[in-house]
Amino acid sequence: MWINKKNERIILDRSREGQQDGSMKKNEVELDGVYITKVSGRLVPVRILRESPYGGWDATNLATGRAVRIRSAARLRGRAGEARRTPTPEG
Length: 91
What we know:
41% strand; 7 strands; mainly beta; 0% helix
């Protein structure tokens, strides 16, 4: 879980836990989706805006509001998801 500057919780979607390296594939990336990626040495949420004419995607770093370019889907760690409630054992 990450907390951005606005104290909003960003939780990595764990539906892709089976992959060892955690990287994504190009066909898994959706426009206007929010993903976790490493920017300047920090894991931050980014929103994919559009495909770049030079390859990859143009995105916005949601922690700072700055424009970033994601050159490869492998840079994305996974989709940022909402908090999930874990079932409690009954007993």
